[in-house]
Amino acid sequence: MAGPSLRPHVHWAQRHRELYLRVELSDVQNPDIAITDNVLRFKAQGHGAKGDNIYEFQIEFLEPVEPKPICRVTQRQLNITVQKKESNWWERLTKQEKRPLFLAPDFDRWLDESDAEMELKEKEEEKINKMKIESRVPKDPFKHLKKGYLIMYNLVQFLGFSWIFVNMTVRLFILGKDSFYDTFHTIADMMYFCQTLALMEIMNSLIGLVRSPLIPAVVQVFGRNFILFVVIGSLEEMQSKPVVFFIFYFWSITELFRYPYYMLSCIGIEWKPLTWLRYTTWIPLYPLGGLAEAVCVVQSIPIFSETGKFSLGLPNPLNVTIQFSFLLQIYLIALFLGVFVNFRHLYKQRKQHLGPKKRKMK
Question: What's the pTM value of the predicted model, to 2 decimals?
Answer without folding.
Answer: 0.61
